[in-house]
From TrEMBL:
Keyword Cytoplasm assigned: no
Segments of this protein annotated with the region Disordered: 1-75
Protein name: Deoxyribose-phosphate aldolase
UniProt keyword Lyase, yes or no: yes
Pathway annotation: Carbohydrate degradation; 2-deoxy-D-ribose 1-phosphate degradation; D-glyceraldehyde 3-phosphate and acetaldehyde from 2-deoxy-alpha-D-ribose 1-phosphate: step 2/2
EC number: 4.1.2.4
Similarity comment: family membership: Belongs to the DeoC/FbaB aldolase family. DeoC type 2 subfamily.
Gene Ontology BP terms: carbohydrate catabolic process; deoxyribonucleotide catabolic process
Record field: catalytic activity: 2-deoxy-D-ribose 5-phosphate = D-glyceraldehyde 3-phosphate + acetaldehyde
InterPro entries membership: Aldolase_TIM (IPR013785), DeoC (IPR011343), DeoC/FbaB/LacD_aldolase (IPR002915)
Length: 367
């Protein structure tokens, strides 16, 4: 497991893989209040992330373990869909200088949840994935960071745990009947407990979209709270499956409910439903995180996932995170990208930045 000198768990600002930096791109970090796609007058003060509160222990978890008898989500700002798309598109067109690009590509490796979620997964395939996670590019003379985590199905957790035992890499498991979430709450809770006990450091659970779309927000909150309790001190990522939520307003509301229920991260998608991660949806979720942080002081992480296969769009996500939340979120403790096939392009683009061209042999050697 990835460790720090102070604790076997990761803490904010302690990662050796990523340091905060102010040389990243132009524009003031965390300045999204002026360009919010929601009503920016709701909060009077600007986001201050200079001394971020630690992500762990999660203050929401130190509250009484049983959720309030009746939960009603607070009023959340209405999302201007056109503005969200335009702003995402503006951010996507920002140019990134070479030096910042190299730094960004390296950070993206450290922030990657290297994923295999296939019916045909085997311990052997997970072993190869873990080797790739430990040494992303064995043929390179350059030092690359290891990835943030490997993400697998529950039965593969022991194999992944064994493979990364002595490495600074977390094991993430999906749970709660991923990807559909279609099972009784007790069964979903039991699965979270199983992967927790099998050695997962991070647990990615899906929300009950059926209940959410029926307007049963109290039930969605109660269920996520139960999954959060079951995950204990493990790091809980709550997947909204935004491709099924129909509107940006729904994404915004689901983000809030998940955070209120104790999510350590909110995550866009399972990768099994289209559309998966998109820039506008990610922007809406980042703004929800920003506003929640302003209101509660609790930082929540963000994980876009699904369909992110190339370095260029991945870099755009980093630009957006910095713009909305600032440098304090540019760490594996607060930002991840979930992807099964992004890593090789990150490595190839790093090589191109270093040598000014691709080496054709490298395409073949990157397994
Ligand atoms: O959580 C991660 C996703 O399942 C990965 O999706 P992907 O295979 O489209 O990269």
């Amino acid at each position: 497991m990835r460790t720090t000198s102070a604790s076997p768990r990761r803490r904010c600002g302690t990662s050796a893989n990523a340091t905060t930096s102010t040389k990243w791109w132009t524009g003031s970090p965390g300045s999204a209040a002026s360009g919010s796609v929601c009503d920016p007058t709701r909060f009077g003060q600007s986001l201050d992330v200079r001394s971020p509160a630690p992500l762990w222990p999660n203050p929401a978890r130190s509250m009484p373990q049983s959720p309030p008898a009746t939960y009603r989500p607070p009023q959340v700002p209405t999302v201007d869909e056109v503005a969200a798309r335009e702003r995402a598109s503006r951010l996507a067109s920002r140019s990134i200088k070479t030096e910042a690009k190299v730094e960004g590509l390296k950070r993206l490796i450290a922030m990657l949840d290297l994923t295999t979620l296939e019916g045909a997964d085997t311990p052997g395939k997970v072993k190869s994935l873990c080797q790739k996670a430990r040494t992303p590019d064995p043929g390179s003379d350059q030092d690359h960071p290891s990835v943030g985590a490997v993400c697998v199905y529950p039965p593969m957790v022991p194999a992944a745990r064994e493979q990364v035992a002595d490495a600074d890499i977390n094991v993430a498991s999906v749970a709660s009947y991923f990807p559909s979430g279609q099972a009784a709450l007790e069964e979903r809770v039991a699965e979270v407990e199983r992967v927790r006990d099998a050695g997962a450091d991070e647990i990615d659970v899906v929300i009950n979209r059926n209940a959410f779309l029926a307007g049963e927000y109290e039930r969605v909150h109660r269920e996520i709270s139960a999954l959060a309790d079951a995950s204990g001190e493990k790091h809980l990522k709550v997947i909204l499956e935004t491709g099924e939520l129909e509107t940006y307003d729904a994404v915004r509301l689901a983000s809030r409910i998940a955070m209120d229920a104790g999510a350590d991260f909110i995550k866009t998608s399972t990768g099994k439903v289209k559309p998966a991660a998109t820039m506008p949806v990610t922007l809406v979720m980042l703004e929800a995180i920003r506003d929640y942080y302003r209101e509660t002081g609790r930082p929540v992480g963000m994980k876009p996932a699904g369909g992110i296969r190339k370095a260029k769009p991945a870099l755009r996500y980093l630009v957006m995170v910095r713009e909305v939340l600032g440098d304090a979120w540019l760490t594996p403790e607060r930002f991840r990208i979930g992807a099964s096939s992004l890593l090789n392009d990150l490595l190839l683009q790093l090589e191109k930045e270093r040598h000014g061209r691709y080496h054709s042999k490298r395409y073949l050697s990157l397994g």
